[in-house]
């Protein structure tokens, strides 16, 4: 029995040392780190007789339409699994109606949004200075970014951003912040023929 005493003491010391660690704590589910691409833009010929600058990591997709007075296209952001749906209309003494419709679409998300921020945007590149409003809908909404821009005489462009999956506002926050600045740049550089 005396021969086993050092072994028994060593086992007790070892068990005592290992049992002194803190208890296991459940951790919340984590998200992958999102690497944002560098900020750089390229000029793009719009499909509706317009030009604008979009991020180099995006592309323009045509959307077929049977309507003559409406032009649709998407600006895709494959890196972020998102797309900006754009609708361009020719004005026909209906600017007030189109602005109200755009605002109604934004505020229809009011019950889900935690807040709606407005950013006024002025395009210095067009004659007459095209103007518009960029809306950031905060919280668990289907479309966190919406906008409209117009030259007030002939053209009205409206857009809304959608993710191709169910977004979590916490995990998409850095992407949405980047896309807000990208869409604002898009609005500032749009020109019409």
Describe this structure as you would to a colleague.
The protein has 193 residues and is α+β, with helices and mostly antiparallel strands. The protein has a domain at 90-192. Helices cover 25% and strands 34% of the residues. It contains three helices and ten strands, in the order H-E-E-E-E-E-H-E-E-E-E-H-E.
Spell out the key features of this protein.
193 residues, alpha+beta, 3-stranded antiparallel β-sheet, 3 helices, 25% helix, 34% strand
Largest sheet: 7 strands, antiparallel
- Could you spell the SSE succession in H and E letters? HEEEEEHEEEEHE
| Count of β-strands | 10
The mean pLDDT is 86
Give the neighbour order of strands across the main sheet: 3-4-5-9-8-7-6
Q: Which parts are unreliable, with pLDDT below 50 for 5 consecutive residues or more?
A: none
- The helix count comes to 3
What is the molecular shape? Answer: elongated
Percent range of helical residues: 10-25%
Euclidean distance between termini CA atoms: 100 Å
Radius of gyration: 27 Å
- Helix vs. strand class: alpha+beta
Could you tell me the strand content as a percent range? 25-35%
Question: What's the quick description here?
Answer:
The protein is an alpha+beta fold and 193 residues long. The chain is built from 3 helices and 10 strands; from the N terminus they run H-E-E-E-E-E-H-E-E-E-E-H-E. A hairpin with a 4-residue loop joins strand 1 (41-45) and strand 2.
């Amino acid at each position: 029995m005396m021969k086993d005493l050092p072994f028994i003491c060593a086992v007790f010391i070892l068990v005592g040392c290992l049992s002194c660690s803190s208890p296991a704590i459940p951790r919340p589910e984590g998200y992958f780190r999102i690497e944002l691409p560098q900020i750089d833009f390229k000029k793009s010929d719009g499909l509706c007789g317009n030009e604008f600058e979009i991020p180099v990591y995006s592309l323009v997709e045509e959307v077929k339409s049977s309507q003559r007075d409406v032009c649709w296209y998407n600006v895709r952001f494959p890196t972020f699994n998102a797309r900006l749906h754009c609708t361009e209309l020719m004005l026909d003494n209906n600017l007030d109606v189109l602005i109200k419709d755009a605002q109604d679409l934004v505020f229809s998300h009011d019950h889900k949004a935690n807040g709606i921020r407005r950013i006024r945007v002025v395009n210095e590149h067009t004659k007459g200075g095209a103007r518009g409003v960029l809306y950031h809908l905060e919280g668990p909404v289907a479309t966190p970014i919406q906008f409209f821009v117009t030259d007030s005489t002939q053209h009205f462009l409206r857009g809304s951003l959608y993710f191709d999956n169910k977004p979590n506002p916490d995990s998409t926050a850095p992407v949405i912040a980047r896309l807000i600045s990208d869409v604002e740049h898009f609005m500032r550089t749009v020109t019409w023929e």
